Amino acid sequence: MKNILFVASEGVPFIKTGGLADVVGSLPKYIDRRYFDVRVVLPKYRCMSQEMKDKMEYVTNFYMDFHWKREYVGIFAAEEDGVKYYFIDNEFYFNGFKPYGEDTLFEIEKFAFFSKAALSILPVIDFRPDIIHCHDWQTGLIPVYLKERFQGNEFYRGIKAIMTIHNLKFQGRWDKKEVQDITGLPDYFFVPDKLEMYGDADLLKGGIVYADAITTVSETYAEEIKTKFYGENLEGLLQARATDLRGIVNGIDYTDFNPTTDKFIEYPYDAISFRKEKSKNKLALQKELGLAQDEKSFMVGIVSRLTDQKGLDLISCVLDELCQDAIQIVVLGTGTEQYENMFRHFAWKYSDKVSANIYYSEPMSHKIYAASDAFLMPSLFEPCGLSQLMALRYGTIPIVRQTGGLKDTVEPYNKFESTGTGFGFLNYNAHEMMHTIREAEALYYDKKREWNKMIDRAMAVDFSWKVSAGKYQEMYDWLKP
Ligand code: ADP
Ligand code: GLC
């Protein structure tokens, strides 16, 4: 039996801001329990729902040296679908209205505290991991601390660390002196082949340098990040560590996302009954959102963080033109004000055709996955992307830019061979995107049989965790034979 510890800043169902939470909350469930004991450490945020807090039980507390202070570390525990979770409690750090705040320096201090605490609780909870599986910059200091101060303690010697990159854009970067002050790491860590990044300190970089293995969430993204365009200034390091870097595509939880049993949708359906039932969900959503009610009109869904990553400037370029077509666009998302307002504006201008839902809602997201005919994701970059996998599962045809995980999970339509599960375009270009949307639209209106066959293929692909969980297991076994 091997012990694996996941450490991350978010995880479903306790707290979620994006796909990271879906992965952290679902992957551990699908790792084979006969061979692996997987546990998860998360912060105990004040902004977690009361329902989730009620699931947690207080374990104990102690004080830890951190940033020239003695900091309180509370431990709570819960079990969810057979997976054991631990929560680090500290009201000073995890007190915000959201998991993440705007003040980068405080974020760095918060997650440096979290990383050190996650290591420090291990003897207390009596769980010695063989491998600590770290996720994103918030946990980048764990491999560093593990190879540094914790080496002095027998308990930690020999523990391996994996760093999984879900998004290279966010690195936890700040002035070297201040980061040194917070972390208490000696000078020699702040040099260019360790944590230093153009004069700053970079926590994700530390994680990548000190981890025994590095993964990212699709094979294409694993290649892309070794290039200048996608590398976010870490391409050199990632090239240097290429033999330890691999891409493992994400899965989604096929129990939570299942059109046959989904409690959030009015008309459940499967790979046969979608022909009748799917459009009933569309009518219901049109009614709920005040769009023109017509089960025949081509509905395109978008469920997304509204940020630059997601390619929304392409949409803003051509939405006026697109709205001349027989099309409906339903957006659910929050993010940058510029994009929130862009969608609000179009919803005002084309009230029959565009619905802008600028909030976060799990139920509404499921309704959109179920009701839409197509799902638009024109990302500038996309490490993996889960929304397109959810769309496929619900027989909603993805229209994507062929980058990162979108390239690996959506097979573009080939009209000559009648293959493919979606539509793709290559260049980051608004008219290329529009052309592709129109191709989809034409197929939908003019060749319904072909369209439905594409839904058959989309619903038949398998992006459950079955295959990818196996790949993580192989890696755990390889690291700790
Ligand atoms: P990212 O992690 O970059 O945001 P992913 O596609 O990997 O992108 O994951 C996004 C996840 O967040 C999906 O589960 C998607 O359904 C969900 N999501 C995004 N925005 C919202 C929202 N406003 N309401 C509900 N779910 C959302
Ligand atoms: C990040 C990426 C997204 C990926 C998710 C889970 O948020 O932006 O592409 O699917 O992490 O790995």
What can you see in these coordinates?
By secondary structure, this protein is of the alpha/beta class. The protein folds into two domains: 264 residues, Rossmann fold; 190 residues, Rossmann fold (3-Layer(aba) Sandwich), CATH 3.40.50.2000. The chain is 37% helix and 21% strand. The strands form three sheets. A nine-stranded mixed sheet has the order 3-4-5-2-1-6-7-11-12, sandwiched between helices. Strand 13, helix 11 and strand 14 form a beta-alpha-beta unit. The radius of gyration is 23 Å and the shape is globular. The model has no long low-confidence stretch (mean pLDDT 97). The protein binds adenosine-5'-diphosphate and alpha-D-glucopyranose (GLC).
List the main descriptive attributes of the protein structure presented here.
alpha/beta, Rossmann fold, six-stranded parallel beta sheet, 18 helices, 37% helix, binds adenosine-5'-diphosphate, 481 residues, binds alpha-D-glucopyranose, nine-stranded mixed beta sheet, 2 domains, globular
